[in-house]
Amino acid sequence: MNNILNISAHSLEKPVIDLSGLFSFWAPWSPVATWCFALVVVGAFTLLLAFLPGFISTVRSKNTASMSLLMWILSVAGLVCLSIFYLLGTISTAQGAVDPDGIHTNIPAPHFLIVFLCEFISCILSTYILLVKIINMQKAKKLGITEEEYCKTLVKKNIK
Amino acid sequence: MEIAMTVFSLIGTFLISFSMLPQTIVTMRTKETANLSFGLYLLMGFATFLIFFYGIGLVMVPPNIKEQAEAYMKLPNPRYTLTTEYIQNLPTSNSVILGYIVPGSAIIFGELFCSVTSFMIAYIKIKNKRAAIKLGITEDEYINRTYRTISQGVSNE
What is the nearest CA distance from A143 to chain B, expressed in angstroms? Predict the structure, then answer.
C-alpha cells in the first residue's frame, strides 16, 4: 500500500501530494505514517522494560541508596506529562476518527493508546521507586544516619 | 485540545530529556558505575532513540494535509476514495502545527539528548565492567583502584 503513498503531481503546476499517513494500515484517520506507529510502540515497550528491573529490585531489597533523587523526580514528572499528552492524543483521535468511507468509528489511533498505557505503567513504577527513595531518606534522617547506612541495615534484615 | 497536547508534550519531553543529565555528569566526573544498572541505561537509550524517530514521523505530517486530500480526490482516477466527511475531519494547518509538528520537534531534540546521555552512562559502565573482568576483579574493586586512587592523588597534590 505504501508504494502509492507519495503521489507525484501530474504536471509542475499541481502540488506534490503526500498522503502517506492517511493510507496507513493502522489508523487511516491519523495522518502519521505506519512506520512511525511501529517505532513508538516498540520504544514505549522498551521504556517500560527499562524501568522494570529497577522496580523489581526496589520491591525486593528496598535499597535506593545508589539512585539519584533528581533523576527519579524528573522521570516521574516527565512521565506524568507525557502520559497526559498521549491520553489527550487518544481522546482527540477517537473524537475525529472517521474512516475513508466517511463512517465515524470513534476508535483512537492505536499507537496513542498503547503508548499511553506503557507510559502510565512506567509512571506508576517510577513513582513507587521515588516514594521508597523519599521514605528511606526520611527514615535515615530521623535515625541520624546516611541513606546508604540505612539501606544496608534493610538489606541485612531482608537476608535474615 | 491541541494547545494542551503541545504544552504537555513540551514539558514532558523537556523533563525526560534532562532526567539522565545529573547521573551523566556524576558518572563522567567520578566514573563510578558499580551501583548503576546497565540494563536500565541501555534500554532507556534504545527506547528514547526509537521515540526520536517517532518525532521525525510527527514532523513529517504535512500542515496542508486537508488541501492535499482535496487535491488527491481531484486527480483523475484516484486509487482510494476519500469521502467529503473524511476530508472535513482531517486536521487543519493550525492543528497539525500544534498537535504534530511542535510536539514532534520537541520529541526529536529531547529524546535524542536523553538517548545520548543514557548511552554515555551505559558505555562507561560496560567499559569499567570489561576492564574489571580482564583483571579478574569486581567492578567496584576496579573503580576503587583506578578512579578513586587517581582522585585521591589529585586531591593530595
Answer: 24
